[in-house]
Design goal:
This protein is of the alpha+beta class and 167 residues long. It contains four helices and seven strands; from the N terminus they run H-H-H-E-E-H-E-E-E-E-E.
Length: 167
C-alpha cells in the first residue's frame, strides 16, 4: 500500500475534527462579539435600531400625545402596515391620513401600557387611553396593539379597540 495515501488519510482524519472545532469556536466567538441582529445606529425618532416593541410603542405614544403626526411617522417604516378596526392601511402616506383625521377629532391623547406580552420583535400591548374631543368630553377606551418592529420602527401594527369612539 502506498504510504503517502495512508499519511494523507491519517493527516485528514486527525485534523478534520480539529479544524471543525477551531472553525466552530471562531464562529461562536464572532456571534458573541457581533450578533447578526445587532445594529448600533439610531432611528430618525432617536431610538436604538435594537429598540424593543415596548420602547418603540412608548416613544410613539409620546409623539401621539404631542399631536405631532410627523413625529408619529418617524416610528413607522415607509411601507409599514397599520390595521385599525375595519381597515388595512399600507405605507406611511395612507397611515398619515388616518392620524390626521384622528387628531382633528381628538384634542388630546394619552396612552398607558397596562399589560405586555413580548416575543422578540413582536408584542401584544394592552393599553388604556384618555382622549378628549373638541367639546371637552373625555373618553377612556381600552385596547390592544399587536406590533412587530424591525430596526427600531414599526413594521406592522394591528390595533384592536371599540371603533365606535371614532364615530
Amino acid at each position: 500500500m502506498n504510504t503517502s495515501i495512508l499519511s494523507r488519510r491519517h493527516f485528514l482524519t486527525s485534523t478534520a475534527s480539529s479544524s471543525v472545532a477551531i472553525g466552530a469556536a471562531g464562529a461562536m466567538g464572532a456571534m458573541l462579539m457581533s450578533p447578526a441582529h445587532a445594529n448600533s445606529g439610531k432611528t430618525t425618532a432617536g431610538l436604538s435600531k435594537n429598540a424593543t416593541p415596548r420602547q418603540v410603542s412608548e416613544s410613539y405614544w409620546r409623539a401621539e400625545a404631542e399631536r405631532n403626526v410627523d413625529k408619529v411617522g418617524l416610528h413607522y417604516h415607509a411601507d409599514a402596515i397599520f390595521m385599525p378596526p375595519g381597515e388595512r392601511l399600507v405605507g406611511w402616506d395612507s397611515i398619515r391620513k388616518w392620524y390626521e383625521a384622528t387628531y382633528r377629532q381628538f384634542q388630546s391623547v394619552r396612552v398607558d401600557i397596562v399589560h405586555e406580552i413580548t416575543n422578540g420583535p413582536e408584542a401584544s400591548l394592552e393599553w388604556k387611553a384618555t382622549l378628549m374631543d373638541a367639546a371637552g368630553k373625555v373618553i377612556t377606551p381600552i385596547g390592544v396593539n399587536i406590533v412587530r418592529v424591525e430596526g427600531g420602527k414599526f413594521r406592522e401594527v394591528r390595533a384592536y379597540f371599540d371603533s365606535s369612539i371614532l364615530d
